[in-house]
Amino acid sequence: MDDAKNPDRDLLRAATGKAALRILPLIILAYLVAYVDRVNISFAAKTMSADLGFSATVYGLGGGLFFLGYALLEVPSNLVLVRVGARAWIARIMITWGVIGVCMMLVRTPMQFYLARFLLGVAEAGFFPGVLYYLSQWFPRGEHGRVVSRFYIAAPLSTVAMGAVSGWLLGLDGAAHLHGWQWLFLVQGTPSVLVGIALLWWLPASPEKVSWLSPREKAALSAALAADDLRIGEPISHSFWAAVSHPRVLLLGGASFLCLAAQITFILSAPAILAGKTGLDVAHVGYLISAGGVLGALGMLLGGWISDRSGDRFLVAAACMLVIAGAFLAIALATSPLVAIVAYLVFGATSFPVLMLSVVIWTDVLHIRLLAVGSAAINTLGNIGGFVAPFAWGIAKDATGSFQVGLLALPFAYIAAAAIVLTLRRLVRGVVLRPALVG
User: Fold this and answer.
1) d(CA 70, CA 189)
2) CA–CA distance from 422 to each of 30, 145, 252, 396, 418 (Å)?
3) Residues 6 or more apart in contact with residue 310 via CB below 8 angstroms
4) In the predicted model, what is the mean pLDDT of the chain?
5) What's the CATH architecture for 13-427?
6) Which residue did the predictor score with more confidence, 326 or 145?
């Protein structure tokens, strides 16, 4: 029967349309302020390190400790989320990390810096896979490319916001006897607390508990989600160890490790690298990073649409990874400011789509019973990369006096990640054309 004349299809579209209007704005806002608190240290780095006497190694270790804290608590956090419900747990995450984000302004010693960054990661642990699990309860897999791209658009938009206002906040140095970097943490950490409180009031718990879906719309949505799970195939076991040791989880975790290791390491030092390669001042570097964020947002929307239309997220993600590898190589070898600027904009346009597509692949190939813990395990491996790589980057910077060695290593991470994604594509060529492998 033609979709246009299919009443079940119409009911499903109505249900997901209502869900998108009521859920996505809140989720997008939450992730935007989350990402700001995660990486605003990149703008604070230069003046904060100068004021407190931090070396590149101290900064790299502190920057990476966020991801260690996140990784250690990722799976336990999602086990709690499944028990207490997404709304309460996601709100708790936001409120606690907002408070700790503000407390970053009180840092005075390397040990305090390490502790604050570690606790920030502990507080945020579970947010991203928790939101992914939550969205999988509302939207069929055929819509995940568009839905996740709209949610994930908050990440590049956060770079737009940071680039636009961070220079101004750093310019408040001395106001009310505070350093500029202290103003940055204070102003950018507070919204997380406010959004967390808003989630407690307005984020709906589940499709079954809302009044704005009719019984027929609820039934159509439930049938579509059940059909998706049947198509993927029931896993042999639903246990914790079955989830974290599943072959697909391990492959996706390896790709996530490589991508996050390279992306986060670069982002944490991007203002300093771009200033050195282009000669721009902090304000204009901020505008350049904002431009990269705009391109990243557009790239995510385009990538989500292309992947839904083509049905081959693996190939699109791998192609973007190889483009990023080329962009990093161009930045490393650039002798012209124009080359560095163009290469950075290419990175901005493709790096966020890669992460978004990788996440959508999780929902495509993992059964719903494995998704909460499995996605947490994948994210844990990714965040371990976010801890290890910045620390090694800082050591290399102190040893050589420049970022060049680290920059030349970044392309290899994305090339290896692309190889993993293409391997997974070959293994699950039938996703969802045949029952999923159950390892």
Assistant:
1) 18
2) 32, 18, 11, 31, 6
3) 316
4) 83
5) Up-down Bundle (1.20)
6) 326
Angle, alpha carbons 209-214-217 (nearest 5°) = 95
- pLDDT at position 240 over 70: no
In the chain, what are the domain boundaries? 13-427
Per-residue confidence (pLDDT) for residue 87, from 0 to 100: 85
- What Cα–Cα distance (Å) separates residue 106 from each residue in 57, 116, 173, 320, 389? 20, 9, 15, 40, 26
Say yes or no to pLDDT of 371 above 70.
no
Length of the chain as a residue count: 439
User: pLDDT category, 326, cuts 50, 70, 90?
Assistant: very high
pLDDT band at 429 (very low <50, low <70, confident <90, very high): low
What phi and psi values does residue 434 have, to the nearest 5 degrees? -145, 165
The Cα-based distances of 345 to 165, 270, 291, 326, 341 in angstroms read: 19, 12, 7, 12, 6
Q: What is the pTM of this model?
A: 0.69
Site of tokens 């606790």? 119
